[in-house]
Amino acid sequence: MLDFDLAALYEVETRVLNQAVKRNLMRFPDDFMFRLTAEEWNQLRSQVPTKKSGHVDMRSQIVTSSPRNASIGIQVEIAQATAHRPAKNLPFAFTEHGIAMLSGVIHSERAIKMKITIMRTFIAVKRLSIQQLDALQEMKSLKERLGTHDIQLNTLFEAMENLLDENAAKHKWENRPRIGFKP
Question: Where are the beta strands (DSSP E) in the chain?
């Protein structure tokens, strides 16, 4: 997510968010946050329809508020962010880890609530992964037991087949026609 999107989410100004990030740069390694290149930023801005004055023409968007037109709202936000941002200040882009770290750096009521929600989510995910690990271990145990049962069943079936073969041979031997002297 971009810095101005997160500023709106945390209900602070973009400059306040960026100042907090700059004061805590050690908390934001490259895999948490990076600055967009001029080319990336220009490409993103070029996708937003704007008037020459830098403002978005909102006449046709006022009536359209369906989820199908949600991208229009995003375009408006980008247009508004670009209208107030100096060209030399390229926006920061944050990964999910950066967003989590950012909620601990920003001191707004919304950021505090977001941090609490994130921590609760991490706890729930941890519990879920522990439960999943336990289930996986149980499945492995069952598979091993079934594997040994399979071997035991095969041995049992072979023994039963041998007994049946011996009984059939013995039965055939006893019921065979006798030759020689009859008593």
Answer: 33-35, 92-94
Residue 12 gets which letter from DSSP?
A: S
CA distance 28 to 101: 8
DSSP readout, 37-70?
A: PHHHHHHHHHTS---TTS----TTTTT--SGGGH
* CB 95, CB 31: distance < 8 Å: yes
Dihedral of alpha carbons 113, 125, 99, 44, sign: negative
Q: Are 35 and 93 in contact (CB under 8 A)?
A: yes
Q: Which residues of 72-84 are buried (b: 16+ CB within 10 A; e: fewer)?
A: beebbbbbbbbee
Number of neighbours of residue 48 by Cβ within 10 angstroms: 17
Q: Tens of pLDDT along 127-174?
A: 998 988 888 888 888 888 877 777 888 888 888 888 877 777 776 767
What are the Cα distances from residue 114, in Å, to 34, 46, 85, 127?
21, 32, 26, 20
